[in-house]
Every structure is written in structure tokens, then in C-alpha cells.
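Obj: model holo form, ligand = iron/sulfur cluster.
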Amino acid sequence: MLDKIKKYSWLIDSLMEAKWSTKKEVVHNFLNAKKKYVPKEKTNAKVGDILKCALCPNMCRFDCPVARVGNSEALTPAAKSRIAYLMEMGEIDFSGEFVDLMYKCAGCDASREWCPFDFSVEDLLVGVREDIVDKGLAPKALLELKDKLEKNHQIYDQSLIPPDTEAEKARILYFMGCTARAKVPDVVNTNIKLLEKSGLDFATIPDEWCCGAPLSTLGFKDSFYKFAEHNSRLINKSKCRTLVCDCPECAYVFRELYPKIGFRLKAEILPMNQFLLRLVEENKIKPAGLQGEFVYHDPCALSRKLNVCSAPRELLKSIPGLELKETYFSHRETRCCGMGGMLGITNPEISSKIGESRISELKEVCSNIVTACPTCELAFKNANKDKKVKVYDISEVLLKSLEK
Ligand code: SF4
Ligand code: SF4
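Output (holo C-alpha cells):
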């Protein structure tokens, strides 16, 4: 308050000279100005923040993958906020293309790197999506997806890996995640082999549900709550001290989003690559060697949301003979694979174009692409139409180096 008084002291000085009625009007407007620009009713959306974003010069647009491949002003971060703001203020309807626009975001946090307010546009849009759900206006396809998730507890139809049954005793739990289990099961098998080689007592979770990221992202907050409750109950009743996740988005959800809705896991939460590096440093896994050049792609969730850039590089550098290459857009300034933020499901065309654009950047460096996220791996495998490059998960590269 004192800061505010200091900031506006020039106004106070001028007001002293003014008539009483003017003083009253200025003070009234000053105190009520904020209220005029946010809705009277309570919203899930942070409308004050959306307004700041809407009024911003929008320079982060140049790093927004959706805007870049979509080639449209409406897809830029501030433009999405402008439409969101008008919807929340009741100036335009929650309908048709305006609602659709609220899902055209890869949740990559690229804009945040440049944002003076440190906004995550995805977070701003999630609040709007929650309002869309509360109004009963969620797109039909997304409602079907939510129903399927609530029924199967997994986002994809089939999970190929049978669950372990020893989870209650193990100190280390391996959370496989829906994408790896259903779409890149080799990664799960690889991780299980690596953990077995380390000699550690680990287990998978018998009744593992999706971490809930898709539900949270799409604004289904009540369903997300149920998933968080289920997974945290299972993990907290076990003897688990370390929860290792294949997918960095799962790790982010456990670490950052569960506590926000009241579920704090008792275990340390680690992405798999960080855990594997620890095993190498403790000599529990000893890479023998692997010749070749590998370019590392930083997954958005790992580098920007969890701030993990050095562990995967250290892990790759620990493999004798392996030559680690970098792309221009790397570390926290990485570029999205296109499958984040459920974009592969909500807007598959935009998602594929982003994946193709990113793989072409990586291809220019060398023909072995390595990443540390099953969703990125899936995106690149889909985008690798001419099969000119090989796409690996970092665990697969590590296992190859042991088997040599
Ligand atoms: S995300 Fe930040 S930098 Fe980008 S338009 Fe919004 S306020 Fe501006
Ligand atoms: S999070 Fe990524 S896709 Fe979404 S608006 Fe920001 S830069 Fe664009």
C-alpha cells in the first residue's frame, strides 16, 4: 500500500489543489477502475491476467509454434487472450470458432520465455476452458475423450504392458504413463530392463491411472481431481520413496499440479533420465560405449516446465564414443514437437505441421534423434515420413550402449 501511495504521490499533490467533488470522483474511479475491467461473476479464468496479455505487444508470437505453422494473426498468444477476454466479459458469445480457438495451444510455454509477466498462455487458457466446461459448451469430441478416460483410466484404447503386483513393497515406483504404455511400449520395456540391471528394488503400479494431465489441460477439473485422488492414494499408501516417470508431463503434474488441488505425494518425483543419470553416477549402470552422432531434442515439459536440461546431456555424454550434437533451438529455447497440450487430439493438422517443422530442424544436424519424452518420440515417429532419421528415447540409447 505504501508503495502505491509513493507511486501516485504526483497525483495526490495535484489533487490537493482540486475541488472537493473532483477529488471525490478521482478517488472513486481510482479505487473502482480494476472492477470495471473484470467480470462481476466469479470465473475460473484469471481475467485480470488475460487482460494484461491481451494488451501486450505480443512479441512472443514469433516463438509460438501454433502461430508459426498456422500463419494467422488469430493464433498468436495475445490474440487468443483478446478473444478470451471478450468472451469472459460477455462481449462475444462462447461459441463456435471462439471456443475452438481456446484449444489451439501446444502448452509448450515457449511464449513464457519472452513474457515480461511470466505468463503461461496455457494456464490462462485452461481457466477459460474450465469456464467453457462449466457452461456445458465443451466440444463433443472432448467430452467423449473425458468419458473414455473416466471409464478406462487411460487415454488410449490399449495399454500393452501388464502391471506389476509388488508395488506396495518397493521403494522405487516406475510410473509408466499412458503414452509410453500404449504407443511406444518398447520404451517401457527398455526402462524395466535398465532398472533390473541396476539391481534396485522397483515396481510398477498395479492400478496405474493416467496422471490426469489431459483432463487438467482440457478444463475438466472435477475429473482431474478424481484421478489425482486415486494416484496419490496408491502412491502414498505404498513404501515408495522415489517415483520415476517416463513422461516429463506426468512428473510436472505430480510435482506442480497435484499439490495445487491438495494432493502432495510423499515420494521424490523424478523424470526417468534424471534417475538414470543418478544410477550411472552411482555405478549401478555402466555404459560400455556406442559410436555415432546423436542430436538431443529438449522436450518442452522437461526443459521449460521442470527446468531439466543438463541431466539428459550428462547421461548421453557418459556413453563412451557417443557424440552429442545440438540444434540451434535447444535447452529452454527448444521448439515444440507439436503433441503437447493435447494438440494432437484437438488440432491434429496443426500438431503434425509443428512436428514436421521440428524434425526438419533436427534432421539438419544428424540422422539420430534422441529425446526424453514418449510424446515427443511419438510425434517424431509420425513426422518421420521418409524414414531418413532414427528416433530414440534416451533410455533406448543407454540400453544399446550396455548391450554392445
Ligand atoms: S504471453 Fe506474455 S509476452 Fe506473450 S502476448 Fe501474453 S503477456 Fe505478452
Ligand atoms: S504455450 Fe506455446 S503454443 Fe501456446 S500460445 Fe504459448 S507459444 Fe503458443
